[in-house]
Write a structure and sequence with these properties.
The protein is built from 18 helices and 14 strands. Strand 4 and strand 5 form a beta hairpin. Strands 9-10-11-8-12-13-7-14 form an eight-stranded mixed beta sheet, with helices on both faces. Strands 2-5-4-3 form a four-stranded antiparallel beta sheet. It has a two-stranded parallel ribbon with strand order 1-6. By secondary structure, the protein is α/β, with parallel strands linked by helices. The longest helix has 24 residues. The protein has two domains: 161 residues, Fumarase C, Chain B, domain 1 (Orthogonal Bundle); 231 residues, P-loop containing nucleotide triphosphate hydrolases (Rossmann fold). It starts with 11 loop residues before the first helix and ends in an 11-residue tail after the last helix.
């Protein structure tokens, strides 16, 4: 029997085609003799999207022009024509794209400057075509690629011969290959052209980046799954399987689903009918009063720590403050003072998590889109109750709209495919991941709460998300008036003798 090797690696070793080729060579195995197993496979889509996207910075374009300056090669002029024209077009595109005052707000993080047009090619491509003054873009890009390859070989030889201490990479080759991809694939389905800018912290200057953002990542994953002998994708939140198959390019997969094997009588999952937290209603005092009352009850009637997920850090802070986050303690189920903790984008989340699990009476307010919603265990008393407040849809920016549009065009025969594939299903997956933080072993127990009318059986029309949950998980949802949730918690935790001393009084 042939020996079987088990290799544990990062997604990137397989999703990046270049790294994958080298990885299989290192394994000394042909791809068709490899079985890949992906844990947390619900994350493949976003990881593959990152690998399928291509980008080129203004700095690389400048380095390419420096590399070409005074080079004695007949192809240098052609390369300078295309690289220089694209570099100028990039600067023109982001400078023209700034609205009043936006330039001054650019910081060290990449921020997008929209360039896509509905009725014409994108602004960057149009500016490139205007600025270009050579003898033919396609021909001169090909000559630039050839020259870049020659320069790269020079660097390789210099390194091998000891004339250089490190292996340099040709900026001309990087720029030329990107330009070839940009011109060939820009108009393809699922490719979204983007310009981004950031500020150099050292010089305080702004520079740009051109990117072909890949909306539908199956071009990466489909090639991988076709290449290897077989693949196994595992995740507690991979369903619906038909959507995963469409997005990743799985051909007639065999699917298996398992329910939560831990005892059902050691968990309760409530769909609390608080008002729907639509973006326009979040400032409504009555909505805030209802949600605050429920969150206060969750904290008070939990015998231990309570983990609270909100649609954003701003919403987490809103209810943190409403419950006494200014320093006033909130009574908890054991008669003590619950410590309120607030997560945010500038907080050391691991340090906060350690402080939270070390506490016996704490409530942690965080965003569903932070780092605590998945991949983190809260075992035993670390978190007894967990709640997802609202339907925490992500911010719909231009990229996400492009993903929606790409799915709509790819699967136009299905109702609202773009919204479901790009927004609703990923949001519900994330919600399900968050709910899984508190039941981590057969001996564990806890209460899980979905706080928003859209989770209940109430007639919310197209806004309802209940049916997006797998059937088995829907069956466990108990619709509950938000004022009554505390009684359900009291009965559940009381039956398990979870309270240290007398239970709280409603």
């Amino acid at each position: 029997m042939e020996a079987v090797d088990l290799v544990v690696c990062n997604y990137h070793h397989l999703l990046d085609p270049t790294i994958r080729e080298q990885f299989f060579r290192w394994l000394d195995r042909e791809p068709e003799r490899v079985v890949t197993v992906f844990d947390e496979a619900h994350n493949i889509e976003s990881a593959a999207r990152d690998h399928a996207s291509r980008s080129l910075t203004e700095n690389t374009l400048d380095s390419a022009l420096d590399e070409l300056d005074d080079r004695d090669d007949s192809r240098a002029e052609a390369a300078e024509n295309v690289v220089g024209a694209f570099r100028d077009a990039l600067v023109e595109s982001y400078e023209d794209g700034f609205a009043f005052g936006e330039r001054e707000q650019v910081d060290e993080n990449w921020s997008d400057v929209p360039i896509a047009n509905d009725d014409a090619r994108d602004d960057l491509t149009l500016a490139f075509l205007r600025n270009y003054e050579g003898r033919g873009i396609d021909t001169e890009i090909e000559l630039a690629v050839q020259l870049g390859e020659a320069i790269d070989e020079e660097y390789e030889e210099a390194y091998k011969n000891g004339e250089a201490t490190s292996r340099a990479e040709s900026s001309t080759l990087a720029a030329a290959r990107f330009l070839a991809t940009w011109m060939d694939e820009n108009a393809e389905l699922g490719q979204y052209p983007v310009v981004s800018v950031r500020r150099n912290e050292g010089t305080d200057e702004i520079y740009g980046r051109a990117e072909l953002y890949t909306c539908i990542p199956r071009r990466v994953t489909e090639a991988l799954f076709d290449e290897v002998y077989a693949s196994v994708l595992m995740s507690a939140t991979l369903r619906p399987f038909d959507v995963a198959a469409d997005v990743l390019g799985l051909d007639d997969p065999v699917t298996m689903a398992y329910g939560l094997e831990y005892p059902e009588d050691r968990r309760r999952t409530y769909a609390a009918g608080t008002p729907a937290l639509f973006a326009n209603d979040r400032g409504d005092p009555e909505v805030q009063e209802s949600v605050s009352g429920l969150v206060s009850d969750l904290t008070e009637f939990t015998p231990g720590n309570t983990l609270l997920f909100f649609p954003s850090y701003a919403e987490a802070e809103r209810y943190y403050q409403r419950l006494g986050g200014d320093g006033r303690p909130v009574g908890d189920a054991d008669g003590g003072d619950a410590e309120l903790m607030l997560d945010s984008s500038d907080v050391d989340t691991e340090e906060l998590r350690e402080r939270f699990v070390a506490s016996e009476n704490a409530a942690l307010f965080t965003s569903l889109w932070g780092t605590l919603a998945e991949g983190v265990s809260f075992d035993g008393d670390d978190a007894r109750s967990v709640a997802v407040v609202g339907v925490p849809y992500p911010h719909i920016d231009d990229r996400l709209e492009a993903v929606q549009d790409a799915y709509d065009r790819a699967y136009g025969d299905r109702d609202e495919a773009g919204w479901r594939y790009a927004v609703e299903i990923p949001t519900v997956r994330k919600t399900r991941q968050a709910l899984g933080r508190v039941i981590r072993s057969p001996d564990d127990f806890g209460v899980r709460v979905l706080a928003d009318k859209r989770y209940t059986r109430a007639d919310m029309g197209r806004y309802s998300v209940r049916d997006t949950f797998p059937e088995g998980e829907r069956d466990e949802l108990i619709d509950m008036n938000p004022e009554k949730v505390k009684f359900g918690m009291l009965n559940f935790y009381g039956d398990l003798d979870a309270y240290d001393g007398a239970p709280p009084q409603p």
